[in-house]
Every structure is written in structure tokens, then in C-alpha cells.
Prior knowledge:
Its main location: membrane. Its EC number is 2.7.8.-. It comes from Neobacillus driksii. Residues 232-524 form the Sulfatase N-terminal domain. It contains 19 helices and 18 strands. The chain is α/β, with parallel strands linked by helices and 612 residues long. It has two domains: 8-192, no CATH class; 233-542, Alkaline Phosphatase, subunit A. The strands form four sheets. Strands 1, 4, 5, 6, 9, 10, 11, 12 and 13 form a nine-stranded mixed beta sheet that branches. Strands 14-15-16-17-18 form a five-stranded antiparallel beta sheet, covered by helices on one side. Helix 1 crosses helix 2, helix 3 runs antiparallel to helix 5 (123-136) and helix 7 (171-178) crosses helix 8 (180-192). The protein is globular.
Amino acid sequence: MIKISSAGLQHPIVLLLVVLFVKIYAFQVVVFENISFFHVLLVEFPMWAFVLSVLMLLFKKRTWLAIWLYSLILSVLFIVVVYYTRYFSTVPSYYDVKQIYQSNSVGGTVALLGSPYDFLFFLDTVLIVPLIWFFKKRSTSFVSAKRWAVSFGCIGLIMTVIAFRYPLIDVSYFAKKHGYIQSQFVQAYENSLGTAFASQEYMSEKELEKLKGNKYVPAAEHSTFGIAKDRHVFIIQWESLQEFTINKKINGQEITPNLNALLKESAYFDNVYQQIGAGNTSDAEWLMHTSLYPEGMDPTVNTLEGEEIPSLVRTLKKNGYGAATYHADDITYWSRDKLYPALGFDYIYTSNEIPNEKEIGFGPADEVLFHFVDEQLPKQLKTHEKMYSNIITLTSHTPFEMPEEYEFLDLPENYKETYVGNYFQSVRYTDEQIGLFIKQLKNLGIYDESVILIYGDHSGLHGAPVTEKDKTLLKEVLGHEYTMQDRFVVPVFFTVPGLFTGEKYSNLGGQVDLMPTLLNLLGIEHDTQMIGHNLFHYKKNLLGMRYYLPGGSFISDKTFYTAPSAKLPASIYDRNTMKKTKNTNRLQESIENTLAIMEYSDYIRKEQTEGK
């Protein structure tokens, strides 16, 4: 080890390394709540110091400029990581950097994430490094940088080798334990090998259901098989819709009056969890159309390279359906220019076709979207006897700020200009547009001949934008503290006029189960294996979630388990009450079964996306 004497502290390299250490330490405290001096010194710091030392050696004529730029880049990187973590509750990786061009999806929310103290990350850039340069420029020598580079390089290499010996199940937890840079190396390595944990052994439907706690029954033998045969299919993926909004009133007003009215002709599932990964809305589309888990750390659409994959769309087309998808956004956003052809849609309508009118947030208002669908349907029905229409709403997207003329709720004063109040207004607006769309289906004479599946893509209320005041308002609406159950459960409506009369199902489900449930109602069997199952038939389930819960977490009929994360230890909750429990009955078995299911899903996805 290199000893630092009092004279050594006079040397600019030592001063720069001390400043860098303070910066890295602050990063660890803010992001990981890690206050261990020696952990930061031995695990996190060496690789960052190694890079700095190497820069000093490489840029001999522009050394100070290289030091300053390195400091600036680290400041920007750390701010991005801090903001990202506050919103998504997970630490970003280089995967997420690839998506920076898509940051407009939460652009309006960034202002809600920051704190004035965050800009202390730039203190060394604007003050300390320039001061060291000013006072030490005449006596500056970077000859010793080679010794520092070798020392830190050796320590960093040792820590990196150690990191590779551990499984990367959860990115945030791994980064806390083994270093942020090391976590990127391990992710890059595993990504170069393909899906990190993909099983290579075939698993039958019987084995899959056994892992979930069910006895397998062939789909054709389910009581719901084919009861909605040959009907038109409409799937409405509702942006940021959470289950607790259904049948809820504020100031005597229903948040979703039109959706509530649909209950009379629907089967309603109130216990279905989001399962998206880093791809968010696009991952919800993936789950709906493949019944496979998303990739997790990388948006699943990034794994597509133009190959045709088995999907709900292709299966419906084989059974006589035309297929159209509608989303009033840029088709390159979340690489839907690759996703939609891979899924097999006949008609693809995005911002290129849907008029940019009545813009709210970062796209046309939902009323413009549904009006466009109304115009296309009659034309399509002249060509196709049965139509499948996939409709992705946009307006109820964070930060949920609605023009005053579109605020249909008369909210109490304490809800106004709050994140929760804005959210309710945006949901109410989209609900109004869906109500009008249902009327239009009736006017076209196809409502009674249709299956309409409506579901939320993911939560809207999460992360730093939800303030203490928002939490108080949510408690007022819910009657209890806002929990992960409230956050992660999305409503699912199967509206089938003449068949369902308001039945409510509380069977545990995930978005991975929506496709097999729909196909069962239609009496259609998919050509390839699905990970999900028919929610009408199976009572038990075992769900995993990537990205928004630590790796190794699971949701079962009685238990909600969160694996250890960057900031929190492992926790076990009673799923019905969301109270913490010490019941570890079959805990390890459930963890292993969940990972086995997800690994097998990865294997199927890898086979399909690589065209094998």
C-alpha cells in the first residue's frame, strides 16, 4: 500500500484522489445508504481511482483538462443515477443509458425528483479541481500517477474477479455489495453470453403448473374454453391505471364511472400484478402478446432484430382475424418499429398516421386516438370478418398534468396541484374517452359481438414524486397506508356482453396470464408454450417481477416476498394484509420455483428471438 504523509497531501494527485473519494463516498451514501468507509475504500473507490490515474498518464499535455472532464462526467452520471433511482426504485445500468433518447417519457417528472443538495456532486467540478489546478499548476508533476494506477488497478481487478464469482440476481443489490462499475462488467459479460439465467431444459405445462401449486388441466377441458368463440377482440392497454381507482369516489364522484359501468357485463380480476421490466409500457405489450416474462434489465424490444416471433397476433391471424395496433407516439419509441412487425400486425398506426391534435403531455389526447380507431374499424371490417384491435392509451402518463378544460373531477382544495390529484384527473379523462368508444362500438353494431380486454400497463404513483402530502391523500382514499399491493396491482376487465354479468375474481394473476386467459375464452390454442395460464381456471399462482422488485422476490397466494435490495433487507409480507410476517414456511422453495419459472421463460424467449 502507498503511505500518505503530510507532505503527500501537498501533492495534487493525492488531493485529487481524496476529493474523488469524498465524491464516491457521497454517491454510495445517497444511492445505497452505505456508510462503511472501508467498503467504499476497498470495493467502490479503486476502479474510479484507476480510471483517473490512467487519464493522468494518457493525457500528458492536457492532464488538467482530462481531470476536469472526468470530474464533470462523474457528476452528471451520479446525478442521473440518483434521479433514476428515486423514480424507478432501482439502480440503472449501461442498458438504461442506451435508452436516454427516450427520456421524454418521464421528462416532465424530473423536476419532482431533485433536491438542491444534489448539485453538491458538481462542487469539485466548479470549485475544488479548479482551485487545486490554480495553486498547484507550477509545481505539478504526474510522474507518480503510474504507481497509483498500478495500485488501484490491482485492487480493482481483485474486487472485479470476486464479483464475477457471485450470481447477479438483482442489479441494485449486486452493485451495493460488489461495486457499481463491477456490476456493469458482470452485466455486460452475461449479456454477451445471451440471457443470464436461461434454463436449457424443457419444462412441460404440467411441470410449470406444479411449480405454481396447481394440477394441470389441458386448456380445452376448462369450462371457459370457447365461450366467446369468433368474437371481435379489442385490447385496451391503459397507461398507468392502478386497480384501487376502480369503484372509488372522491367528493362523491367516481374516478372511473364508465369503467365501473362496464362491470355489469364483465368478468373483473382485482388481483393481477404488473410484471414489466425496464421497457415499461412496451414490456406490458410484450407480456400481453407472448405470455413470456420481459428481459428485465434491458427493454425486451432491444432483443428483437426483425425476426418473426410466435405471438397472440399471429395465432389470431391463423384463426381468421385481421390485426391492427394503435399508439399515438413515435414508432421508434421503445423500438416499436421492431416490435410490431415481429408480432405480426397487419395495420400499424402511430404518430405517423394518428393526427397530432389536442396534444396533452407528449402526444395527442386519447380522444384523438379513439376517434382515429373509430374511423379505421369500418374500413377494416370490409376486408376482415373478425378484427383484433390493440389500443395503447397515452394521456394518463406521468406527470399527469391536464389542461383545465379536461379536468372532469371537481376535487377538494387539498387535492389540487398535487401529484395524486393530477393522477386522478388524468385517469378520469381517459375513462371518459373509453366510455365514448364503447358507445361507438354499439353504434357500429359490433359491441355484442366483441371481447373487450382492458388492463393497466403499470403503476403511475411511485417514486420520489409521491410526496408525504400525496401519501396522506392516498391514505384518505384507500382507508389505509399506500402499500406495494396498491402500487403493483392493475385492474383487468374481460367485457363479454351476454356472457358475463359482473363476476369478480380474486385469483392471483400476473400480466403474463392475460394472453392464455383471452385465448381460452376464444377457444384458440397457441402454437408455442406460454408461461402464464387461464385465470378463470387456476386458483393458485407464483409470480416473479423484474426490475421493480429485487431479483429473487416473489408473489404467491399468501406471501409477498421482497428479496434484499440496495437499501432494504429482505421482507416477508402477508399478502392479504401487507403486514410484515416472520412466516418462512416454504420460503426458499418458492424463491427457487419462481426463479425456475422465469429462467425457463428466458429460455423460450431466447429461442424465439434468436430464430432457433
